[in-house]
Amino acid sequence: MNTLALKVFAALALILLVESVSEDQKRYDNYSVYKIRHPNQLQRQLLHKLTKQHESFSLWHESREEIHLMVSPQALPELGKYLNKTYARSNMFISNVQELIDNEQALNMKARFGPTVNWKRYNTLSEIEAWLDDILIRYPGVTEGFILGKSFEGRNIRGLKISYKTGNPGVFIESNIHANEWITSASATWMINQLLSSADKQVREMAESHDWYIVPVLNVDGFVYSHEKDRLWRKTRQPSAISSCIGVDPNRNYDSYWMVNGASNDPCEWTYAGPHALSEPEIKAMSDFVSSIKDKLNVMLAFHSYSQLLLSPFGHTDEEVPENYDDLMQVAKAYADAVQALPYGTVYQYGSSAGLLYPASGATLDWAYNEQYIRISYTIEFRDTGKFGFVIPPAYIIPNAEENLIGIVALLAEAKKLGYLKLKY
Ligand code: 0X9
Ligand code: ZN
């Protein structure tokens, strides 16, 4: 074959590959995302009513300052009516969600011919697992694989323990509990690599003086579904007995103030808490595993995206704060300052989950704090603040992971200073 024929053949093969992947995937053609700034009580209430139409509207983000709302093209006139009626201040920041998804997929296809995990594209679950196997072979003395349990669809939920010596304080990292937050597992795997191979003095020191338990993808079924069928899928994949809508928000399913606040009993909603606490096998598995080693755990970090926030307990109420709230804020400040001091200059806000973001109960950080006595417990909402949202291009993986690793160095140093990293019993 001559070179031209070869090029044509390669191009055709790529097109076929892209098409076979995108075949029967949910499409978001001309879905747009709007920012509504400083919504008042009435604007918020009416907006929540709108979002009951699940096919047309979905809430990407909600805080005191801003709401991000994805709208189908068919529902644009209705959004227009809402904006006129309520005088809400808004602007569109994504005009076509499908375009972002297509760009991401094209990049994934192009980079697929390189090494499997190089953080230049988003990896699938099987690629992440193959990479974990390789890590276990390359670092036999200090790594150990563990299995949390099985997902609803029967997949193993895998984790990696890194330990350089005995008697270290324990740090647990839970990542990709929300299926569509791909930057979380991409960053967690990058951090694993750094903990094992970085030559940076402060990273080495941190890596070797803690025991790490890292679960890069907790919601494995949802993650696979988000790769194969619907890029924006958030929940688990367990069907409901009372509705045709599938899945539970796993970050409302922990057994701590379950369904008390900011959680829905409607299986069609993004924040559906499930029929009962721990109804999701993934959360039951996590709960059993963490309970079994809670005496060794001093820190819990739950990776999410997006909004650039470091959130502390409580999430179930904004009417009280934990007894060590001042310490939690001091540790959070150390993290945010360290992140901002890097050349990227990324700004993270910090505060209690319910105060800074919104009340929501049954989430990992609260359960770890309230039920497992892990006194340093946070949710980290990674980049960005509303340019790409969940579909953040892979070029941001390394900057995001880099700054968060340095943030965690500072976070742990401050927690140590305050006496939180001593052996618990
Ligand atoms: O709502 C969530 O579960 C988290 N945000 S996300 O956009 N990644 O879904 C935030 C959880 C923080 N906890 C509370 N607000 N309670
Ligand atoms: Zn999340």
List strands and helices in order, with pairings.
Blueprint: H1 3-22, E1 32-37, H2 41-50, E2 57-62, E3 66-71, H3 76-86, E4 89-94, H4 97-111, H5 125-138, E5 143-150, E6 156-162, E7 170-175, H6 182-197, H7 201-208, E8 211-215, H8 220-228, H9 281-293, E9 297-305, E10 309-312, H10 325-341, E11 349-352, H11 353-357, H12 364-372, E12 376-382, H13 397-417
Parallel strand pairs: 7-8, 7-9, 9-12, 10-11
Antiparallel strand pairs: 1-3, 1-4, 2-3, 5-6, 6-8, 10-12
Helix pairs in contact: 6-7, 6-13, 10-13
N~2~-sulfamoyl-L-arginine (0X9) is lined by residues 178, 181, 251, 304, 311, 315, 353-354, 357-358, 360, 363, 379, 381.
Quick take:
This protein has about 425 residues and is of the alpha/beta class. The chain is about 40% helix and about 15% strand.
Walk me through this protein's architecture.
The chain is of the alpha/beta class and 425 residues long. Helices cover 40% and strands 17% of the residues. The protein has 13 helices and twelve strands. The strands form two sheets. It has an eight-stranded mixed sheet, with helices on both faces. The chain has a four-stranded antiparallel sheet with strand order 2-3-1-4, covered by helices on one side. The N and C termini lie far apart (71 Å). Bound molecules: N~2~-sulfamoyl-L-arginine (0X9) and zinc ion (ZN). N~2~-sulfamoyl-L-arginine (0X9) binds next to helix 11 and strand 12.
Key features of this structure:
single chain, binds N~2~-sulfamoyl-L-arginine, 17% strand, alpha/beta, eight-stranded mixed beta sheet, 425 residues, 40% helix, four-stranded antiparallel beta sheet, binds zinc ion
